Write the structure tokens for this entry.
Amino acid sequence: MSFNCVIDLFIWNGLFYIANDPWLAEQITMTKGNSVPLKCRLDERNVGSLWFIAGNRLVKAGLNQNRAGNFEFNGKSLRAYEEFKAKKN
């Protein structure tokens, strides 16, 4: 799956992730703060992390714990998260 990131922030399926990575910061600086499209991967066993390739390195973006409603999904499976979202709607 791919989606856009803003600054060091990724938004996917209603969850907010953050990655402190110098390569990503450089890409965002070069685009003058606009979104940078990245191909990311998610381990369906735990929605607590997204993974992307930065240059030639694998980088982890974790759930942004400063965003309300994010932290309780750390360690949850994609299925459990989708069931929660379905009940909420």
The chain has two helices and six strands.
